[in-house]
Write the structure tokens for this entry.
Amino acid sequence: MEQSNPPALVRLSEGVRPPAGWSECCTCGHRWRTGQHGGHSCAEKLREELDITDKLLAERERVLRAIPECPEHGAGCVPHALEWIERAKAALAA
Ligand SMILES: [Zn+2]
Ligand SMILES: [Zn+2]
């Protein structure tokens, strides 16, 4: 009986090392000169990134809400929104 092994996990972090002379926090990705004081607040850095993500999501929501719902998938369908925008652009250019 043939038994296939599960695909090896792709480890994104592998091989992505900070440049020589730099240390990296494995929690938040913050970098600092090796040997120097690397004190930082992971929570603060992560919150900053979350803020950006939140803002981007809010913007996306606003765009999607401005566009009629997808007849198939309802509101928030990105492919439909892109199609709708393309159609609107074509209509404007015509
Ligand atoms: Zn950190
Ligand atoms: Zn859709």
